[in-house]
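S1.2 Input.
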Amino acid sequence: MRSGPTRRHPVTIAVMMAGLLLFAVTVSAQSSGGILLDDFSNGDGQSLIGTRWEGFTDRVMGGRSDMSARIVRTVDGPAMHMTGRVTTENNGGFIQVRLPLSETEHFDASGYQGVVVTVRGNGDNYYVHLRTTRTRLPWAHYKQALPVTEEWRRVELPFEIFEGAHMLGGRRVDTDRLRSVAVVAGGADFQADIQVREIAFY
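S1.3 Output.
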């Protein structure tokens, strides 16, 4: 499955409870020796590290998948909620929300062990994708399966288990040269429904 080239879609952002817009307070991005990339407390699509979430689908390459992403208020706090119809028709088959890690060239995550995601959903085909300065092709990335259940679950994904896809060079993640992290639904025909409450490097 190629995860690009893709068309960038603005992510619709709303924090809602009983139809009311809520306002959240930004918290520290440092957490237990790691860095908290986002807990969606800003409520407007801007992460705790200052970059903004982006939404992508396979439609620019002829695919037919659809997506919606917004910030919702759960009883446990705000979360990014991505839903959509993923279809492999016309060589497509993915939707994703992606967070650039730097406004400049890259982000140095060499001091961390991996990605940790607090997540719940319908248990279908989900992944975390990483892009670095080495992933020059639009569809190149490093990926690892993201196990999802109906209950909130904290999932740790060490950098060393990410596998390169469509790479021209090395197969290991250059953790000192990261460009983005993404939560992806893809690889099969299904209705995606996933919520992310926190995403961090640990």
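S1.4 Remarks. The chain has one domain: 7-201.
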